[in-house]
Write a structure and sequence with these properties.
With 236 residues, this protein is mainly alpha-helical. 81% of the residues lie in helices and 0% in strands.
Length: 236
């Protein structure tokens, strides 16, 4: 067995299958860290803020943000699921009505990808005989064979990711009033650095670049809200 055959027999490890859950996890946690930390810092920077005001703002931001993420993800994925269902129903009807035309359509897709015409037609016939709707689902509609979109699962995942990112900045807000403006940003920046490194590593990207971009954006967000809190002079 050649080295190349051995390599393929062991299976290749690609990173593209991670992009869906990785993007959702990183976005959720990143949003939780930055938005909640920024709000806490903005409130803490106001001269009239008290320890209870700061903690209440952090808890409210955590709960409200997690629920908002869940609701938004549920609506978004539900709309996607409705579209997928409608497209599959339409495709099933077309296959039942005109199987030969759908076979030619499938063959044309394979030809466009570089398969010889005769072979493309043969493959299309075999795919239609094996699982016609599944073939059109993958190759015509571009939908993955993973059971379709799951709105509830997506909503729960987004809420948990947001809360996981936000919880430590809220805990850091329990420090003495004079230390909040140091403890919360420091906690947030460390978490953002870890998140950037994790996301970059899981996605196969350079770690340094992944850390730098999330840390800079987080620091900028907290700096702006701290400035706003200081200038207004009131609890916001």
């Amino acid at each position: 067995m050649t080295t190349d055959m051995m390599h393929h027999s062991g299976g290749e490890h690609h990173l593209m299958h991670r992009t869906g859950w990785l993007r959702a996890a990183v976005l959720g946690a990143n949003d939780g860290i930055i938005s909640v930390s920024s709000l806490i810092v903005g409130v803490a920077a106001a001269p009239g803020a008290t320890a209870s005001n700061i903690l209440l703002a952090g808890i409210a931001a955590l709960v409200g943000g997690a629920l908002s993420m869940a609701a938004g993800e549920y609506v978004s994925v539900s709309s996607q699921a409705d579209t997928e269902t409608a497209d599959l129903a339409r495709e099933a009807a077309e296959i039942a009505r005109s199987p030969l035309a759908e076979t030619r359509e499938l063959a044309a897709i394979y030809e466009a990808r570089g398969v010889a015409p005769a072979l493309a037609h043969q493959v299309a016939e075999q795919m239609m005989a094996h699982d016609a709707l599944g073939a059109h689902r993958r190759d015509e509609l571009g939908l993955a064979d993973d059971g379709g979109s799951r709105p509830v699962q997506a909503a729960l995942f987004s809420a948990i990711a947001f809360a996981a990112g936000a919880i430590l900045p809220v805990i850091a807000a329990l420090t003495p009033r004079a230390s909040v403006l140091y403890a919360v940003p420091a906690t947030a920046l460390v978490l953002l650095a870890l998140l950037g490194a994790l996301g970059a590593r899981a996605g196969g990207a350079p770690t340094g670049r992944g850390i730098l971009r999330v840390v800079l954006l987080g620091a900028m967000a907290m700096g702006v809200t701290a400035l706003i809190g200081t200038l207004t002079g009131t609890v916001i």
